[in-house]
Amino acid sequence: MIRGLAATNWDHLQKWELRMSTSPILFSGWDALIRTAVIAACAYPGMLLMVRLSGNRTLAQLNAFDLIVTVALGSTLASVITSKDVALAQGLLSFAMLIAMQFALSWLTSRSARFERTINGEPVLLAFRGDLMDKAMQEVRITDEEIRAALRASGFASLSEVEVVVLETNGQLSVVERQNSSSQNALRSVPGYSRTPATAASKRKFPR
Predict the structure, then answer these.
(1) Helices 64-82 and 113-120: angle between axes, nearest 10 degrees
(2) Considering just the CA atoms, what is the radius of gyration of the chain in Å?
């Protein structure tokens, strides 16, 4: 029995080695290269045409769903070009479905504030006039160093120079300069800004 098992395992090993030795790794033939070239020449312009017809909003990346659609389009294009199991028609249909879903979702969010909040969420106030919002930072998992990086990227050397730091619904950190103007229209949609942003227990000064 032991000899029989050893012989079986040896046969499987030989078959695996033979399959690996004949498997194309660096070059699988001219037919595969021609297919890749033809599919790429058709799929890429097809995707661009659909994106242009749907408008600039499709690739705006204003929220998380926009980012998902952008990544999905790129992944689908790569699959269509490199995979023999995905036909060109399937790829074009996938492009059309992704763009159509993004178009429908953006159309709904632009007409319903409640639907927009449900899909996109709300911005989060992380810093207000020199104070860090500890509770908010812990909830969204933002560190002091990430706040510092956002300040440097916006050209500020100190948190005291800015009015607020906000985590936007697309994941970006917005830094708003402190101004003397009493009108802050752009901050109206930030929860907590129009009233006292935080209690003393949940805020702290920026570490030196």
Answers:
(1) 60
(2) 27
